[in-house]
Design brief:
Blueprint: H1 6-24, H2 33-36, E1 53-58, E2 60-62, H3 94-97, E3 98-103, E4 114-120, E5 131-135, H4 137-140, H5 146-155, E6 162-166, H6 189-193, E7 197-200, H7 203-206, E8 227-233, E9 239-241, E10 245-248, E11 256-261, E12 267-272, H8 286-289, E13 299-302, E14 310-311, H9 312-317, E15 325-331, E16 337-342, H10 348-356, E17 358-361, E18 386-387, H11 409-418, H12 438-446
Parallel strand pairs: 3-10
Antiparallel strand pairs: 1-4, 2-3, 4-7, 5-6, 5-8, 8-9, 8-10, 11-12, 12-16, 13-14, 13-17, 15-16, 17-18
């Protein structure tokens, strides 16, 4: 008889997903979406597509993979609820899926990434009245309205408690004015809604908030603060803020965490510890963060996991049947897996050699290497190399419920969907004992992330 405790399974699924997302996969000091979305932007969420809204368009780090992406948004005019919807504030929407990240340092001098903002403000902002505001996570947690933000700014100490950078600051170099400064024309509503406005990330690391010619933002550097937001204003009482975004003030090195050959043997899949492209598959600097433009020498391999590291292309040419890299793509729900397309499937002795090797990224201090979604660099030390294949499925437990070669959320969901079922063959009964219970759940959790080949 089939018995199914759906409510229990749903609650258990939510608890585990929450723990995995925020206990086991948090990157550095990144801040949960619940905090980032609770700032002044939460005061007036869009009710209709025509309502005012502003948000960080790129780079965005995917956090909640259960929400489909709404990006790219070609025109924000009339589509404001794609960002966040007052009728469902924690449901679908860009802000509930991914978080904006500003990486404040210059590691890609040839193609520096930018922080891109899109908005449909409903008025014409000016550069003299619009500003970025940087503050601590603690302070940000106390501010949920524009009135509270204004009160905080009037009582706090510039350069100590916060830093404010107005958009007419001569240190910005992404505009169309003299010296590449921003002008009011750069904030035209049509521009904000369609192409967006791009602020070079490296400018924030060197800019003087209180530079002459700019509205007084106070002395200090943005480098000491972990949270920021942009407030677009016309200086006459109209203002619309973005959600809070995370600020990374030191380079976050991108490391591989696992590697495997797909079941057909045609792809080598190398998973990194953070997304490789921003949400919506945008590239913050095409030649740096677009895998389609990567050269064929961005990975290295160590034969039998030891000895000197050689180019992956040289390793492939040294197999009994020489192969080469046809191109790269990005896989994974978090867009964190570099998919290396090979010229011919790996099989037999050559597949064995590939599985015995370890692979790692070549350091990418300039353009041409593998960069993260925010333009951050890859880590190339031997200690960061990972084995190919990752291990075997636990004996006696078919934890790979769908046969895709890896134990992941799909397998976890299969168990949770069937949890409580008794009798009958169902995918969630991984140990084939006639019931789906904690033994099956533990089998999947203990092998989570393992590749089974």
């Amino acid at each position: 008889m089939r018995q199914h405790n759906g409510s229990f399974a749903a609650g258990l699924s939510a608890s585990i997903a929450s723990c995995v997302a925020f206990c086991g996969m948090a990157i550095g000091a990144d801040i949960p979406l619940s905090v980032l979305n609770a700032g002044p932007s939460s005061e007036s969420l869009p009710v209709t597509g025509a309502d005012p809204v502003a948000f960080i368009y790129s780079p965005r780090e995917i956090v909640n993979t259960t929400i489909p992406t709404a990006l790219p948004i070609a025109n924000l005019g009339g589509t404001a609820t794609l960002v966040q919807n007052a009728a469902d504030p924690t449901g679908a929407g860009v802000r509930n899926r991914s978080r904006g990240v500003l990486a404040v340092f210059d590691v890609n001098s040839a193609n520096p990434p930018s922080l891109v903002v899109k908005a449909s403000p409903g008025f014409e902002p000016t550069v003299a009245a619009s500003s970025f505001i940087f503050l601590t996570e603690t302070a940000a947690g106390t501010i949920s309205t524009m009135a509270q933000l204004d009160a905080f700014l009037s009582g706090a100490t510039p350069g100590v408690d916060y830093v404010r950078v107005f958009l007419d600051n001569p240190g910005f170099t992404g505009g169309t004015g003299p010296g590449l400064n921003f002008t009011d024309a750069d904030l035209a509503p049509t521009t904000l809604a369609t192409g967006g406005v791009a602020f070079p990330a490296r400018d924030f690391g060197v800019i003087d908030p209180g530079a002459p010619g700019s509205a007084d933002g106070g002395e200090g550097s943005v480098m000491g603060f972990g949270v920021g937001l942009l407030v677009l204003s016309d200086g006459a009482g109209s203002a619309v803020p973005t959600e809070y975004f995370c600020v990374r003030t030191s380079p976050t090195l991108v490391r591989p965490v696992s590697a495997r050959v797909d079941s057909a043997g045609i792809f080598l899949l190398v998973t990194a510890d953070m997304p490789l492209v921003t949400d919506g598959d945008n590239s913050v600097s095409p030649s740096d963060t677009n895998p389609a433009q990567l050269p064929d020498n961005v990975l290295r391999a160590r034969v039998d996991g030891a000895g000197p590291a050689i180019l992956l292309s040289d390793f492939l040419m040294g197999l009994s049947v020489p192969r080469f890299v046809l191109g790269y793509g990005v896989w994974g729900e978090r867009r964190d897996t570099l998919a290396v397309l090979l010229s011919a499937p790996l099989d037999g002795e050559d597949l064995t050699k590939m599985r015995a090797a370890t692979v790692g990224f070549i350091p990418s201090q300039v353009s041409g290497g593998v960069h993260s979604f925010a333009g951050e660099v890859t880590f190339g030390m031997i200690t960061s190399y990972v084995p190919v294949g990752g291990g075997e499925c636990p004996a006696g437990a078919n934890a790979d419920t769908n046969g895709d070669g890896v134990i992941n959320f799909a397998d976890l969901n299969a168990v949770l969907s069937d949890f409580g079922v008794m009798g009958g063959a169902v995918p969630g009964d991984v140990n084939a004992d006639g019931r789906v219970d904690f033994a099956d759940l533990n089998a999947v959790l203990s092998a989570f992330g393992v590749s089974c080949f």
